Amino acid sequence: MGRRKKSVTSSGGDALAALKAAIATKVAAIESSVGRLQALPTASAGGGAPRRAAAAAPKRRGPGRPKGSGRGPGRPKGSGRKPGRPKGSGRGPGRPPKSAAAPKRGRPAKKAATPKPAAPPKDYSALDAAIRAALAAAGSPVKAGDLAKQVVDNGFVTSSKAFHLEVGRRLAALSDVAKTDGGYALKG
Questions:
Q1: What's the start-to-end Cα distance of the chain, in Å?
Q2: Which residue stretches of the chain are H helix?
Q3: Which among 84, 170, 105, 85 has a CA at the least distance from the CA of 135?
Q4: In this structure, are residues 171 and 131 in contact, taking their beta carbons and an 8 Å threshold?
Q5: Tens digits of per-residue pLDDT, 96-124?
Q6: In a domain, 115, yes or no
Q7: How many domains does the chain have?
Q8: Which of 28, 88, 93, 182 has CB atoms 3.0–4.6 Å from 141's, for a disulfide?
Q9: Predicted confidence band at 125 (pLDDT cuts at 50, 70, 90)?
Q10: In sequence order, what are the residues at sequence separation of 6 or more whose Cβ sits closer than 8 angstroms to the Cβ of residue 176?
Q11: What is the pLDDT of residue 6?
Q12: Is residue 7 part of a domain?
């Protein structure tokens, strides 16, 4: 389980005496150190503060160069355009300056897309009227798929393969139609 602690016996008095003797030697060592510090000479003849070590050199800014060195990252010292030289002449020895007539490499840029003429807005007034008539005839909420069948049965002509989706879009756009739990119904 674990070791049992020894109980304090008569040897406890001996341990206390040894502890007092160790404390006394530490106090004596501290007092001698304080005495030596007071004996040190002062910084000036006027008795000012004790002299400090010389100031350390300013620290560098992290692993890189100091701010304001004038070079970009990874550029060797002395590279780049010199004052008084024309722009584009700092390409290095033996390299001709860039010319404007040189063809560019890489993929050609995409041509700007020509805007398509906007399609005229569709006239949904006939469909809207047919939807309203079917909702009024139903009297109770109707689902969009059932409503699309009623509109076609009432004589609305369409060529759409997904007419129920178109009816759903129109139902969402109509302001006098409300969606309820059972489907769509006219407001009011």
A1: 84
A2: 12-38, 125-138, 144-153, 163-173
A3: 170
A4: yes
A5: 666 666 667 788 888 887 888 777 667 67
A6: no
A7: 1
A8: 182
A9: confident
A10: 132, 186, 187, 188
A11: 59
A12: no
Structure tokens of 74?
Answer: 């990874």
* pLDDT, tens digit (0-9, with 9 covering 90-100), for 141-182: 999 999 999 999 999 999 999 999 999 999 998 888 999 888
- Nearest of 98, 177, 111 to residue 143 by alpha carbon: 177
131-137: list long-range contacts, CB under 8 Å, 24+ apart.
Answer: 131/167, 131/170, 131/171, 131/174, 131/177, 132/174, 132/176, 132/177, 132/186, 135/177, 135/184, 135/185, 135/186, 136/186
Residue 78 domain flag: no
Determine the structural domain holding residue 174 and report its residue range. 125-186
Query: Among 35-49, 51-65, 97-111, 126-140, which range has the highest average pLDDT?
Result: 126-140
Distances in Å between the alpha carbon of 94 and those of 89, 97, 166? 11, 10, 70
Q: Which pLDDT belongs to residue 39? A: 82
Four-point Cα dihedral 167, 170, 175, 180, nearest 10: 30
How many residues in total does the chain contain? 188
Which residues have a Cβ under 8 Å from the Cβ of 186 and sit 6 or more positions away? 132, 135, 136, 176, 177, 178
Which residue carries 């502890």 as its tokens?
Answer: 19
